[in-house]
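Sequence only, no structure available. Ideas?
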Amino acid sequence: MSFARAFAALTGASAVSMAAQLLRGKLAALVLGPAGVGVFNQLSLLWNLANVGGGLGTFNGIVQHGAEAIAGEDRAALRRLASTFTILLGGISLLIAGAGALFAAPLSHWLLHDGGEHAPLIALLMLGVPIGVTAQIYRALLSAGRSVKHLVRSQIYSDLGGAALFAALVLWLGLQGAIIGFMASHLILFAFGAIYLRRELGGDVLRPDWSAFDWSVVRSNIGFGASGLFLIALVNLSVILVSRLIIDRFGAEANGYFANAWRISSVYLGAVTATTIGYFLPTLARSKDNAAMRDEVNATLRFYLLLLPPVMVGIMAGGEVVVWVILSKAFLPVAALLLLFVPAELMRVLADTLLAQFLARRRLRPYTAVYLIQFVLFVGLSFWLVPRAGITGAAVAYFIAMSASMVLAFGLCSILVDFRLERATLATALRAVMLLGAVVWLSDQVELIPLRLAYCALAGGAWLWLSRHDDNLRQMIAVIRGRRTD
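Reply:
I predicted one. Tokens follow.
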């Protein structure tokens, strides 16, 4: 299966995922309001942080080593990998869940400055950590086998089932129902992951075997684990810290605006590319030489630079309409923030794609260093800008941090792994930058929405005309239409 076809399949799952998240976001906005959404976002970020801690950041390592075992038809190595991490991470996630429940009150105050008022919800949330961690192990093993069909189905069932339960529970129980519905989606992902893993790789891989536990497997994954843990923890911690700053300065309602601007760009829009790591990373790792890897990365960059800009144009140009549809009228301040958050997301996607070369080569120090600098920039600039410019300052800090990380990633890849942008990739990137720059300027200058949409549509038409001879665009359109290309 080509990357384009895998991307098309995984993007279908992402579309369902985004639709489910949009439904949850809409209901949360209507039922909980900006302040309630601000609280819910902080609690879900805490869960993400605990889930990452329980998984020790091993997802990429399991994918990498699992892909090697499957490609080499080494059944024993695959069983050792699955058993070792199911046992190890299961135990660690139970400890984290217990500690989180025990210290729920101080955690609540640290997150929300509420005197421990939301401690019962935090204790409830911690119960789902072991389930979430194990579900990610199953997902990593399916990704290692490039089981696109099963990855897609498990994600769709999880999103649809979780959204249905979330809708019922948030209307009935409010914030508590939102938390339970959030946990339910991970339980469903766990269940279907187990079913499909048994079908794809066999029941012996699914069942943890103490005799197969091997510390050498843990040691071989320490680099991946430490890097992955560090990276994802930084992402969640940065948003938690900035959100805490906003809550202290302007209250939970302002954080509701910030949280949703970040969510629309980094979560809803990011879902378009996030699922493809399950296909892209093992494909990159199987590249025969540097030239093959360079070709793969350039092709993927072009694919993103063609796919994402039109979607981003629609979000930015119709920001008020998008916010009203997926949230409510109370969240209209989010629209202005999207002019910074959405382009920043493109920078993040490009940086992640470039840095995947270091993962495939197991060069983790430069990989981790870029994200550390990104964290320092985002948090440091936010603490300087938020008191001066409010939540707009946080959006500016995010854009600067993502842009700087993209530039730094390109520089390091050029120096350390001899990566070069192909002329076609550079041309595609220039067209994307021109389009997004024009739309940001038009969206800021033209207040009348129909006129703004018309101008932005003209800009999009010019971009499409300039891209008319692009073979990648024609191939992408052919894949979407279900036609084969040479």
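The chain has a mean pLDDT of 82.
Hope that gets you unstuck.
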